[in-house]
Amino acid sequence: MVAIRQILLGWGRIGIVGFGGPPAHIRLLRELCVERNEWIDAVEFEDAIAVCNLLPGPASTQLSIWSAWRVGGRLGGLVGGLAFIVPGFVVILALSMVFLSGHPPRWILGAGAGAGAAVAAVALHAGWTLTPTSWQRTPSRVRWGAYALAAAVAAAVLGPWVVVVLLGCGVAELGWSRYGLRRTQGTINAWTLPALLWTAVKVGALSYGGGFVIIPLMRGDAVDKYGWLSSQRFLDAVALGQITPGPVVHTVGAVGYAAAGVPGAVLATVVAFTPSFLFVLLGAPRFDRIRGARGPRAFLAGAGPAAIGAIVGSSIPLARALNEPWQWVVLATALILLFVGRVGIVTTLVIAAVAGVLAL
Question: Major place of localization (predicted)?
Answer without folding.
Answer: membrane
